[in-house]
Amino acid sequence: MNVNHLVKHELNKRALEFEHKGDCAPTIMLSPRELSAMTYLAKGMTRAQAAHEMDISEHTLRVYIEAARHKLGALNTTHAVARALSHGLIIV
């Protein structure tokens, strides 16, 4: 594991600390593009890299990220990625 990967893991761990675990969590539905955006970010890609992989503009990527963040009830993008991971919506 390289240092960059360890830092990302630690940030993810810290973001998950904000998560409140509940027995009856509502089902969260993200679109395929929102899931792709969250997955690329979870893998440590920058927004520019994720947009390139998805063959979309960074502006469009931001729209997908913000929509996912809203659906996940996240405070920021890192929190959204952590919530998507903890809900099993994305797997890295």
TrEMBL record:
Coiled coil: none
Cross-referenced Pfam families: GerE
Domain HTH luxR-type: 23-88
PROSITE patterns in the cross-refs: HTH_LUXR_2 (PS50043)
UniProt GO BP: regulation of DNA-templated transcription
InterPro entries: Sig_transdc_resp-reg_C-effctor, Tscrpt_reg_LuxR_C, WH-like_DNA-bd_sf
Molecular function terms, GO-annotated: DNA binding
UniProtKB keywords: DNA-binding, Transcription, Transcription regulation
Listed SMART domains: HTH_LUXR
Protein name: Regulatory protein, luxR family
Organism: Aliiruegeria lutimaris
